Amino acid sequence: AQSVTQLGSHVSVSEGALVLLRCNYSSSVPPYLFWYVQYPNQGLQLLLKYTSAATLVKGINGFEAEFKKSETSFHLTKPSAHMSDAAEYFCAVTPEGYNKLIFGAGTRLAVHP
Amino acid sequence: EAQVTQNPRYLITVTGKKLTVTCSQNMNHEYMSWYRQDPGLGLRQIYYSMNVEVTDKGDVPEGYKVSRKEKRNFPLILESPSPNQTSLYFCASTPLGAGTEAFFGQGTRLTVV
Predict the structure, then answer these.
(1) Which of A21, B9, B18, B40 has its CA 20 to 30 A from that of A6?
(2) Is B85 in a helix, a strand, or coil?
(3) DSSP state, B101?
């Protein structure tokens, strides 16, 4: 069965520092990959998705992620953190032919001045 | 505005008292699903529906029921809630097709005492 591993349940960075949130998936066939963000007391919002068109995917709010098949990874980055980026981030996969999302456990990002 | 609407946002109930959480989408999506979010576990799928009158179990269906009598509505029913169903619940709506984006409701925080 497919699974998603997010390394680090909590990540803390300074404002202006690089954000790196890690995601690894288990799949013999590259799936569709997503990053969702959850702000406090809100639902999940799509940041970006990989659907095999390009390995470097750009999303909203300055985030991007790179699909690396050899490492089965889809890490999320942002060059310079803002206070407004504080939220919980979820990596998810959709197996080929399905609409079901399989989520990682989530990473809570804290941004301090 | 495209949206998924869940009600109620917050609910406290007692063990064994039947309850329904409603979900409605205005995007004419075929695929709808329910997830529960628990700390350290991410989101897990409870039930899904691929169209009217077509529903199926997700990964954690025990203790839940759903129905899909109309395309826009997908209520979640807890016939006899128990404390282990205390969780944050999300309804999601997705157009059928590979790699499509899921749209989430604002969430329902349920506490069963």
Answers:
(1) B9
(2) helix
(3) P
Taking contacts as CB-CB distances below 8 angstroms, the residues of chain A near B43 are 44, 90, 101, 103
Q: Which of A24, A42, A44 is best to mutate for the B interface (most B CBs within 10 A)? A: A44
Q: What is the DSSP string of A51-105?
A: -SS-SEEE-GGG-EEEEEGGGTEEEEEESS--GGG-EEEEEEEE-TT----EE--
A99 touches chain B (CB under 8 A): yes
Q: What is the pLDDT of residues A75-104, one digit of tens each?
A: 999 999 999 999 999 999 987 667 789 999
Cβ–Cβ contact A97 with B under 8 A: yes
Assigned token pair, B79:
């016939």
How distant, in Å, are the alpha carbons of A41, A84, A108, B4, B97 from that of A105?
A: 18, 21, 10, 23, 25
Q: Do A43 and B106 touch (CB under 8 A)?
A: yes
> Using CA atoms, how far apart are residues B85 and A69, in angstroms rounded to an integer?
37
**Displacement of CA A38 from its chain's centroid (Å):** 11
Query: What mean pLDDT do residues B91-106 have?
Result: 90
Q: Which chain A residue is nearest to residue B34, measuring alpha carbons?
A: A100
Q: How far is CA B52 from the centre of its chain?
A: 15
